[in-house]
Amino acid sequence: MGTILEVSRVSKNFEGVQALTNLDLSVSEGEIRAIIGPNGSGKTTLINVITGIFPPSSGRIIFNGEDVTNFPAHHRVRRGMARTFQNLRLFPTMSVIEHILAAQYIHAKVGLFGTILPSKEGSLEEAQMYERAMEILSFVDLADRAAMPAVSLPYGQRRVLEIARALAADPKIVFLDEPAAGLSADEINSLEKLLRRIQERGITICLVEHRMMLVMSVAEKITVLNYGEKIAEGPPEKIKDDPEVIEAYLGRELASELDKSGE
């Protein structure tokens, strides 16, 4: 598979605080890449820079062969980037399916007047968007909750809805920022299955996550950050035994547990 994302010597400063330093990252099309590290290591900052929330202080971002370094976030979404956030960002007055429909408008062909004024083209596109929204909700097992207010969903399903909303933007790559936060063991197991189904659709996944059993189970390659720098990179079996990773993040007890889980 080719390279879908190339981050080259990216740095980010916040009023004198060095959040990222000359960071390189290369992600292959179709892979599940995990990005891990202690709190404050720069993981979310890296995702924010890649997706256009923050501009880099220096460096380049190449996505799908195109330099998107200076593109605004919505242009990156149109080109195939989507993401979720650490904290739930659902609209309190919107239903489950309305969240999915709203995410599709980034690619809508009918403009503002086409949605306000009745037209054959507008009605056809609305019907197509509704059909696709239901397909996405079926894919994530939320079709029976389509009409419910999103905020009335149980916490785990709200997490899933955020992933579904990202998928509604028709991404080539999706960045998931701690999707397992607050989930039970059964919910994490369901999330793992969902990530594999997303990958089977040909969508590349970048996963920022602290739940190491999930990371080691699904990631084909892991990038480890500490103090804004990459300290290690490789397959899970290499990362869990890396002395610098153990010292900076995993700790010997967790590293031992990961060893036992892989036996």
Provide structural commentary:
It is a single chain. The chain contains 10 helices and 10 strands. The chain has helices spanning 43-51, 73-79, 96-104, 112-116, 120-139, 155-168, 185-200, 212-218, 236-239, 243-261; strands at 3-14, 17-28, 32-36, 58-63, 66-67, 81-83, 173-177, 204-208, 221-226, 229-234. The strands form 2 sheets. The chain has a 6-stranded mixed sheet with strand order 6-7-8-3-9-10, sandwiched between helices. The chain has a 4-stranded antiparallel sheet with strand order 2-1-4-5, covered by helices on one side. Helix 3 (96-104) crosses helix 5 (120-139) and helix 3 runs parallel beside helix 6. The longest helix has 20 residues, at 120-139. The mean pLDDT is 91.
